[in-house]
Specification:
The complex is a heterodimer of chains A (about 270) and B (about 270). Chain A is an all-alpha fold and about 270 residues long. Helices cover about 80% and strands about 0% of the residues of chain A. Chain A contains eleven helices and no strands. In chain A, helix 7 (about 125-150) packs antiparallel against helix 9. Chain A is flat. In chain B, strand 1 and strand 2 (about 35-50) form a beta hairpin. Classes of the chains: A mainly alpha (about 270), B alpha/beta (about 270).
Chain lengths: ~270, ~270
């Protein structure tokens, strides 16, 4: 117990030291840039406190942009997860279904977003729908690949056990395969959560008229004086991505607490 | 669900009891063509009703495969197995087999209680009845204090007790055990053997088919031992163990126990040096 407390304190101290170090380097670098003759120094690398000030100055427009990005990302994430889980269940029903579908899934993942976004914009003719689609599309891949593996995780005797109870496919899925796939589902979700946000913002950057991406783009076109707003939008995006990833971790602790890594009081 | 208490254990000579499992010239081949593996060849034996039958042999003799054939988990390639005059598959669908594997195969997302309840839940046993049976089973295997524990919080022996409780929970006529104590340490293993005899004594009428490669385990537990040789798996000899029950640890020192143990050892070693 003493060791654990000691370790925790040490961990916290190291984290704090890193944060302080990053800020020190930042201030130093910003100072060097500002010391030159460059009149655009503040636009290139502003001091951190300038970014914080700017965040509060433009609070309402930043928040509304953040909400647009977050809400569409969340919806797309949920949609992609739902479709991904259903698709995985279909794929593991027979080896031929999986080998028939997997190449398309892999191919879909290789389509460059830079090509897919304009195409979906012309199809949907609606920014929100496009954001949803791109977020869901990105989520779908991570989730499907992970869940397909997870659904095969149960050992053969577990399947024989279900067979000895004369449980059919549906019951085996419900009582054995889906719970056994939960850890893999969450590992897919952890990867997909921040990416779904990036997908939503990408649509703003490529012709959207709302969201954090749009805020960045707009700030840049209004000249160097607005450059701090780009930094603000970027940090808000980072924070949201981090929160989303944390939310997935929390959900996992509640919904799948039996995994070896999360066990408490195990031997 | 039968009322187990009305049936008494059959104490007549093993050979005179009616057969419940009849295996006739059973063969099993895995794969086909040049890569085909003959796992079992011309295997014939009877399992008397309500008795404890061990299938004993070295690894690779197909004894686990044989268990799966009897339990209707895999199809036979040739020959015939009749279980109470039905095919193994029919009996499996009627949920007459409770199975215990070498690994306990407990579901980590369920508590001890929920693991034992699993087959009852799948069968659709009403909630009240389910609760009663689960409680009864958990008491029977001596885990009353661990109902709400998760499988990983239990020792290997305790996990295997949960697996036995789960296998018996729905009242199957057959308990099929595939080297159930193979992964346990020596002391736990011997304790579990006498525990199994105690548990079985409280479920009269239940027939146990037990796979093992331990000669002493087979002699201590069984009414009949089917000794097998490897590659392909064949029956070398069927030996009836006429040592009266209840048997305790003392049986290990019994003259007949040592005699039968020696007989089987000679049989297996003569085969190996041939």
């Amino acid at each position: 117990m003493i060791d654990q407390g000691y370790n925790r304190t040490r961990e916290a101290m190291i984290t704090a030291a890193i944060v302080i170090g990053v800020f020190a380097i930042w201030y130093l670098a910003a100072g060097i840039v500002a010391a030159g003759d460059d009149p655009l120094a503040n636009a290139k690398l502003p001091y951190p406190h300038v970014i914080v000030e700017r965040f509060f100055d433009d609070f309402s427009s930043v928040m509304s942009a953040a909400w647009t990005s977050l809400s569409t990302a969340l919806l797309g994430f949920a949609l992609g997860t739902a479709v991904g889980v259903v698709l995985s269940v279909v794929m593991v029903q027979a080896a031929w279904i999986e080998s028939a579908l997997m190449p398309y899934l892999l191919a879909a993942q290789m389509v460059p977003m830079i090509a897919l976004v304009p195409i979906s914009q012309t199809i949907f003719k609606n920014d929100t729908a496009t954001r949803l689609f791109i977020s869901a599309f990105i989520t779908l891949f991570s989730v499907t690949v992970a869940v397909v593996r997870g659904l095969k995780a149960a050992p053969p005797p577990a399947r024989e056990l279900m067979k000895s109870y004369n449980a059919g496919r549906l019951r085996t899925l419900r009582y054995l395969d889906l719970p056994a796939a939960m850890p893999m589902l969450f590992s897919g979700l952890r990867v997909a959560a921040p990416l779904s946000l990036v997908g939503s913002v990408l649509v703003d950057l490529m012709g959207g008229s709302q969201g954090l991406g749009y805020l960045m783009l707009a700030a840049q076109t209004f000249g160097p004086a607005q450059a701090t707003l780009v930094w603000v939008a970027m940090f808000v995006l980072l924070a949201l991505g981090f929160l989303l990833a944390q939310a997935v971790v929390m959900a996992e602790k509640i919904l799948a607490p039996w995994q070896p890594a999360m066990r408490q009081g195990s031997n | 669900m039968r009322e187990a208490a009305t049936v008494q254990h059959d104490h007549s000579a093993v050979a005179t009891r009616p057969a419940t499992v009849v295996a006739t010239n059973v063969g099993k081949v895995f794969g086909s063509g040049a890569s085909a593996v003959r796992a079992l060849e011309d295997v014939s034996f009877d399992v008397p009703q309500g008795s404890f039958v061990s299938i004993l042999g070295p690894s690779g003799c197909g004894k686990s495969t044989l268990l799966r054939l009897i339990a209707g988990l895999q199809p036979l390639t040739s020959g015939e197995i009749a279980v109470n005059d039905h095919t193994p598959d029919e009996m499996r669908k009627a949920r007459e087999f409770g199975i215990v594997f070498q690994q306990p195969i407990l579901f980590d997302w369920r508590t001890v209680e929920q693991n034992v309840a699993l087959p009852l839940q799948l069968i659709g046993t009403p909630k009240e009845e389910r609760k009663r049976r689960v409680g009864e089973m958990i008491e029977l295997v001596g885990l009353g204090d661990f109902r709400k524990h998760r499988p990983w919080q239990l020792s290997g022996g305790m996990q295997q007790r949960v697996a036995i409780a789960r296998a018996l929970a729905f009242g199957p006529r057959f308990l099929m055990m595939d080297e159930p104590f193979g992964a346990l340490d020596m002391m736990t293993r011997e304790r579990m053997q006498t525990e199994l005899l105690r548990i079985w004594a409280s479920r009269p009428g239940t027939t146990i088919v037990f796979i093992t490669h331990s000669i002493s385990e087979a002699v201590l537990l069984s009414d009949r031992i089917v000794v097998m040789s490897a590659r392909p798996g064949r029956v070398m000899r069927v030996i009836d163990v006429e040592i009266e029950r209840p048997r305790t640890d003392e049986v290990r020192k019994d003259e007949r126990f040592l005699e039968i143990e020696a007989e089987i050892r000679d049989l297996i070693f003569s085969q190996e040096h041939a």
